[in-house]
Structure formats: C-alpha cells, structure tokens
Structures
1.
Amino acid sequence: MPYENIRFETSEGIARLTLHRPDKLNSFTLAMHRELRHALDALQADASVRVLVLSGAGRGFCAGQDLADLDGKLGPDEVGVLVEQYYSPLVQTLRALPFPVLCAVQGIAAGAGANLALACDIVLAARSASFVEVFCKIGLVPDTGGTYFLPRALGTARAMGLALLGDKLSAEQAEQWGLIWKCVDDAALAAEVEQLAGQLARAPTLGLARTKQALYASPGNSLEQQLALEARCMRELSASHDYREGVAAFLEKRAPRFEGK
C-alpha cells in the first residue's frame, strides 16, 4: 500500500520505520495506524530483517493521538475501539517481533507516543527529548501499555507520580531512572542510532529474540519456571547456525559472521 503517514524501508538487515506527520508532531491518525499495521505485517514476513529502527520525523517523536482525526467522536465506543483495535495490537506486535526494536526519540514523546517508545526493546533519546503521560489531563488512563511498562521499569511511586501528575520527564532523568537505555547529545543521536542498529544487525538474531522472550517472561514466572525457560532456549539455540559460528570464531580467534539463524 502507498504510505502517506509513515516512511518504511529495509536495507542490509535494518528496517527503518518513521512516523511521518512532522507538522502534527507525528500524532496518530487511523490512517497512520493502518499503515503501521501493514508495514509491521511486511516485517514479520521478511526473513532478511534483523533489527527495526523506529523514529519520528521532524522536531518530535510522537505527540500521541490526534484528537482532531476522530472528528469529534470521543465517546466510550470510539475510544474503546481505538485502544482495543489499534493501540493494543500495535504494542503486542512490536513486543513479539523476533528481532530487536530500537527506538530513537527526539523532542516530545507524549501520551501514546511515550508508551510506544517504551514498548521498544532499546530506547535512545536526544538530550532535549522528554516523556509525558498526558492522559491525566483529559481524565483517561495511560494506554498503549503505559500502566504495564511504567511500574515495571520505575516502581510504583515514580509510575504514580508520572501518571497522576502528567509532568514532563527529561531524557536525562529517564536514563537515570532506568526508563530508557541511553540519553545522548542531540547532534549525536543519529550516529548513535546507526552504530547500534548496525551492531544489532550483525548480531546472532535468534539468540537476541530468545533473550527478549526470556526477559519479558521473567516478571510473571517463578524462579523454577524461568530456569526451565532458559533451559529450553539454550537447547534450541545450541542447535543453531549462529551458535556454531560463534564457538568456531572464538576458537579460531576471529570475528564471527552471524546469519541470524
């Protein structure tokens, strides 16, 4: 399908998906959601992809939902359908992708935009970036996984403060609190993202996918369940091409050439 609200391309194992409504701070519309779904479906069917870079065009990452796009239809049916049919599947799809998802945040990440970033595996943010849970300003609850990600990353006290007060959280503070991986100078963001994307694209993708799976399963598992999951992953991965290549490269004292399988 032709994309008007996003930009999507793949090259050398790296997929790049850019929210592209810069004049509206990349706020979500139904059309953008449909394009995102199409692009993510294409990603899942492309065995060559080994990392996804998610970003926003212009001066902001994403300002959340564009309320004007709903044409005044803001009742319980419309809002409920919006969350259930668009935002929730978007988060679930991102979390389940069998390769790392790297998010680059510049400017504002607000509402669903903030939580979309938190749904990614690794988040890099420009020093001038900020995260804000704006839902309390209009009487709603943080969606797009906000009530799931925030307490797990920050603990209840900080999650409550962000969700109930709606204050901006700077990228530097987000890094210090462990909400994101790294805060970098604005001018360095693009280069940092490219370096990390290249590193992940050359890594043993299947092993990274199982690492994601194990880490995300951990909070809901007992120690015994987690140990069993680790054993299953290790059994599968020890039969993989990249494991054999990694061991051979180590023994031969050379750089490994992983194929992602």
2.
Amino acid sequence: MGAHAIDELLRYAPDKILHIYTVRSKQSDLLTACEKKRIPITYVSADQLTKMAGSDSHQSFLAHIKPRHYFDVSEFVEQAEETSFVLMLDQIFDPQNFGALIRSAECFGASAVAWSKNRGADLTPSAAKTSCGASELIPLIRISNLATAVDQFKDAGYEIVAALLDDKATSAYKFTYAPKTVLIMGSEGEGIQPLLRKKADRAIYLPMAGKIQSLNVAQAASALLALKVCMENRKR
C-alpha cells in the first residue's frame, strides 16, 4: 500500500503488480504509468480500500502483487555471490522500524535481510509501505530460529558481526568487513539476544559525538551501512 511504495515497484519490478485499487477518480501520474504497463485498475470506496489494506495509511492506493518468495538460509547461500552481506534483524517489533531497515538494506546494497518470524515484526502492509517498495526488491530470508540460521551461515563461510556497545567492539570507522558477512542488529529495548552475542565472531559499534548516545535501530543501521559503502568505495 502507498503511492510511493507502488511507484518504486512500478519502476523496478512492474511484473510483480497484478492489480491496482484506488479511490481516486481523476487521473494521476501513477495511474498513467500503470495504464502504460497494462495493469488493471479498479476504483473502490475509501472504506473498502481501508478494509482491504487493513490500515488507513494506504494514501488511496493499494496494489495486489504476486506472492513473495522467502528464502531459507540453505537456498540463499547456494546462490550467493563471493561477496555477500546479510542484514539480520533480532527482536525488531515495530513494523515501521522493520520496514525502514529493509529500505536501508536495499539502498546500501545489502544482499539480503534475514529475520525470525517468531521474534519480532513480520512483513505487514505497514512495514512494506515504510520500506518504499524495497521489500519487493531485496531477497528476504524469513526463518524460525536465528541461532540455527547463524550456525548455517557460519558453515557457509560467513563471519557473524554483532552491533553492540561493548568493550571489545571495534569502531565502525576502523572496521573491515569480511567478504561474506552477517551483521546482526537488535532493538533499542531488547537488544541482541545473549545466545546470538555469544555466537558472533566480532562486534562493531558506531561512535557518536553528541550528548545522546543512542540511535533508533533503523537510523543506526543506515549509518553503519552508509559508512561501510563509503569505506569500500575509498579502497577502490
């Protein structure tokens, strides 16, 4: 749901859109683009659209899309390239944070996003809207047990890095990522569960200069990912 999310999908994966539902009767750029792609459009009432979306944050647009493909770890690592970076999310319960994290991962070139369907938010229409279409563009690894997934990634040659404020953590300004890395981010309240901390090979933290020494998890992930891309570009 949401005009911007649908617009991004229309730009980069229009074949995923099966049908558009909207309350607008007048023409718009989005509807014109859908018509050019020969995507069916149906006009409905605002109440009906809200009921279909399960939310009133649809911005008058709702897309019926093809079913998403969720990877398991084994399937993903089999097709992963030699350089592979996975953002793993632990205990992220806020759908908007979850969607924003997926958006940041796609924007900064992550290979996939992994999370547990049992320990946090799932990909709801609200989360998909916040991702601005990224949830349809980046590979998604939806699993039951993150600890088991970490072991599988390790067996496939991935280094596990936990984002932690820890005495042994390395500054993000000095950190060098392995060619295959899983970066684990936890929520501000719950953090990363102890078992995953123990399984991590290294820890990373983001130095801050202000008085407030904490960031929203989506903001922190964006900063870490942007810094990673910046440092890799400098080496080229």
